[in-house]
Amino acid sequence: MKSIVVSALLASVATVSARTFTVTNACPFTIWPAMFTDLNVGSAVPNQPNGWTAPAFTSVSFTVPDNWTAGRIWARRNCDFSSNPGPNSCLDGGCNGGLVCDSRTGTGVPPATLAEFTLSTNPSIPDNYDVSLVDGYNLPMRITNNAGCHVADCPVDLGPNCPANQKGPFDSTGFPVGCKSACLVDPNPSNSRNCCSGQFNTPATCPPSASPVPDILASSGLKARKIPGGYSIPFKRTKGSLGRRNDGRKSKRVGGMRKRAGVSGETGLGDNSDLLYTVPVEIGGIVTAVHLDTGSSDLWVTSDSCTAASCNGPATAKQYPMSTFNDSGASVNMQFGDSLTGTSASGPIGFDTATVAGIAIQNQVFSAVNVTDNTVVKYGAAGILGLSFPAGSKVQEAIVVEKTGPLAKTDDFIVGTYQYGPLLARIAMTGALDMPMFAIELQRATIDVGGQDGVLTIGALPEGIDNSSLTWVPVRLYKDSEGGTPAPSFAPNEVYPFRWEIDIDGVFLDGERVADSAIPANGVSVTTTSALIDTGNSLLRGPSDVVSNILSTVSTTYNPSRSNSVATLPCNVPHTLAFQIGGKMFPVDPRDFIGEGSDASTCEADNLVVTDPPSRGALFRWSLGDPFLKSNLVAFHYGNLTHPSVDPPRIGFLSMVPENADQLLTQAVNDAESNGGLFDSTIVAAPTASAATADQITVTPGFTGISTRAPSPTATSPGAAVTVTMGSSGDTSQSSGSDPSDNKENGAVAGAKMGMGLVSVFVVVGMVVGW
Questions:
Q1: Quick one: pLDDT band at residue 147, thresholds 50, 70, 90?
Q2: Which of 85, 177, 229, 719 makes an SS bond possible with 738, Cβ 3.0 to 4.6 Å?
Q3: Where is the secretion signal located (predicted)?
Q4: Torsions phi, psi of 369, nearest 5?
Q5: Would the CATH topology of 1-155+224-250+716-771 be identical to that of 277-431?
Q6: Residues taking part in catalysis
């Protein structure tokens, strides 16, 4: 199921004379958007016809007056205006007038999901918008914005999940493409709680419990969900703070991160001496431990037919049984590491239900590896869970080629992400997550055991972490000429992310800036210094000249002219290597900068090594691995995977290095000296046993793009884009206050008030657009 998104940009002043609306159909099929203005309420109308044809993946822009009142936008499906054009020309959402809805009577035939707008030129009266299911449902819908204001949406595909007596209409295959409201099927609509009519025609007698929508939600398994700022009946009970004050400043969050309505989960991590971090994953009928890797994209596990010697070691986690393998017919050979540490894994590609952090999705593609020299298997993992972008997925590429033929263009690859993409990307694309993101905290198992808890959180920030405490920076996008994904025909101007890679402002050692690398890139033009954020890398990797400079500074024994020179240094002398990101310093804890030496008095700076210079497809100079992630909580927001320009991916950082880190290192050294020169060290197994018995939620694959319900950067532009999406899959709920971070799914009706003018609006069908 696809979606329609309406996005409105909010200005910091309310004196503009017009707002720009953009309507985009991101469904892989044609829809017919419609628009209506209640001329009994206001005379201002948009400069766009009240209906038009929107082929798959196309957009239309137009302006609306600053005082547009009682306006609505919706989508029509399965239309044929060739004969007798009118309200019955479409399977749902049709209107009087045919293609162009009548300006007086063309309100649309239920069921239809509505995006409703009332704009204001008065600074003391906010703009209002909402997503409404009062007239039933025919496509998911979302309204988001680019300035941290409220998101209203219905991202669930309610058609197939509708109560039997409300289900319909049906397309030619018998599939339900709508869900009628309880009022529409009520035998006594003139005096009904379902219709808020007759004796129930007041807010007091038509409570939310009498709404036509909860029947739909309950049947969808979503009865307990809440819609922030939403309503599902004719009497709107939107309440709470505005997304922005009338003075244009952001509202202050009260009390930090609140419990969300959408799906989220967390799981503990295993840690093998800080060399390998593992996460429990259930695939098919087995729960096993796989390496947590933000540097790659694919899920693979060794199978019980693996022929590699590493697959037979006693430390290897549970392997996938080929007796239950659902073979796709495709196979893959995956490469990992750089030119100095490269490994590979290969095997057939199959489908199975995969679960991580209690969130399951069916028909997940993965490789059942039968040949590998990857060292993660040697150290106790059954494979790798890649958390990076679809553009880097060799499994997705192989399965799309198998299904559609050679990739002459990227359309099939990008559209196929919701079916064949990486595990977390597919989960995010369902729209069911509270936020389309994940966050990682890595624990410390050497030198001084402890630090962060070691947790993977999916769909939300970790409990107790406030968005305002993170520094958010954009992910680097890769042009085709740089080795990135070529733009598809339906989005020819898009540039896609390839890796979790961000620009860094500089590198600092003990408070002094280190000179930038002078080593030229290989065959590409690189004007900035960027870093890959990579949990699959147990070290810090950087340019050879910068690494040599740092090691020569901290060690008197290091000789850069010798290839095997070891940088030894006193264990009790702390050094702080820091990376400036988004204007803020993010240090590596002194306890994570060093490695154990022969005793507790002499250590080695062996967590810092050399990597390759930038090249096509790998523009980064630094790879910040586990030492960096042990010192910093990192949040990864996918953004819009089909149209990243409307919701770019980003990464948020929060330093977890304590102020007394130097003293803690000294104490750890003293403890080691008292322990015969041995530092603390431990191995923590991934919690596979608890994962096997934990509660699970299954999310439904859907081509929705990625919603903008993740925390937005603390520094935003003065404007905000509000987006309405029809056709996404996600959660639903009811009315609550609208905090700037409460940009959650709103399945029944989601409403919000804006304390300033909506300047531009983006309506996207088939995906979720955001800021």
A1: very low
A2: 229
A3: 1-18
A4: -70, 130
A5: no
A6: 293, 534
Predicted confidence at residue 225, as pLDDT, reads 32
Pairing of strands 270-272, 683-684: antiparallel
Instruction: Please determine, for residue 288, whether its predicted confidence score (pLDDT) is greater than 90.
Output: yes
Distance CA 420, CA 390 (A): 9
> Which residue type does 444 have?
R
Q: What are the helix and strand counts (H, E) for the chain? A: 11, 45
Q: Using the CB atoms, write b or e for 436-457: b if 16+ within 10 Å.
A: bbbbbbbbbbbbbbebbebbbb
Burial class (CB in 10 A: 0-12, 13-18, 19+), 185: middle
**Which tokens go with 152?**
């209203």
Contacts of 676 (CB under 8 A, 6+ apart): none
Single-letter code of the amino acid located at 543: P
- Cis ω before 169 (30° cut-off from 0): yes
Token digits of residue 484: 């990135």
* pLDDT of 686 above 70: yes
Q: Which tokens sit at 498?
A: 């390839």
On whether the pTM is more than 0.85, the answer is no
Which residues does 338 contact at the CB level (< 8 Å), separation at least 6? 541, 611, 612, 623
Domain ranges of the chain: 1-155+224-250+716-771, 277-431, 440-689
CATH number of the domain located at residue range(s) 277-431 in this protein: 2.40.70.10
Report d(CA 196, CA 161) in Å as an integer: 24
What distance in Å separates the CA atoms of residue 186 and residue 337, rounded to the nearest whole number? 62
286-293 and 152-154: which strand pairing?
Answer: unpaired
